[in-house]
Amino acid sequence: NRVRMNTVLDFQVFSAIPFTEYHPDIIYNENRPQPPELDINKNYGHYDSTNFKHISFYTADYLKARKKIEDVIPLVKYDKDIWKLTPKSQLAEDSPYYLYTRNGIYNMFVKNSKAHILRAVEPSLRLRHSLETCVYCRNQVEFNDYCTRMQAFNLATRSQLGRLILDYQAHVAYPRSEF
């Protein structure tokens, strides 16, 4: 209901900030097993403000924003037309086409829509940890750095990472102890 209330036709797009679980191999152990349902707790995860994958909008708002970039990314009516409508020169890593397709719908609304974009935490949106793979681009140093930072940011809290390092050092110093 909160998502519906925050999405307003011709005025506002809603982008929910999910609670994202940290890496389960780091935060859970024999004493603290992984629960069947993810609890909102600072030791289990965090609200990931870098996650732009969950967005709510009206079709009319999408079509208006999409129409503005039709010259960069052609509208495709049928799957078989995708490669016909996309010039091979547009697939370069620094082309506007490539940047729009990499950055997704959220950035399309930011750059090409008069609608406001509301970002807010959504307690009912809880995501289990997933490994994000970074596809590195030669000309996109900022994007590469951002992706690497986000992978590290979603591992665990600083104290949990510190404990992991200390456990590893103890294991190396005394190989008989369990790791």
TrEMBL record:
Membrane topology: Single-pass type II membrane protein
Annotated InterPro entries: Chond_GalNAc (IPR008428), CS_glycosyltransferase (IPR051227)
A GO CC term attached to the entry: Golgi cisterna membrane
Record carries keyword Ligase: no
Domain of life: Eukaryota
Alphabetical keyword list: Golgi apparatus, Membrane, Signal-anchor, Transferase, Transmembrane, Transmembrane helix
Organism: Homalodisca liturata
Protein name: Hexosyltransferase
Principal location class: Golgi
EC number: 2.4.1.-
Subcellular location field: Golgi apparatus, Golgi stack membrane
GO terms, molecular function: glucuronosyl-N-acetylgalactosaminyl-proteoglycan 4-beta-N-acetylgalactosaminyltransferase activity
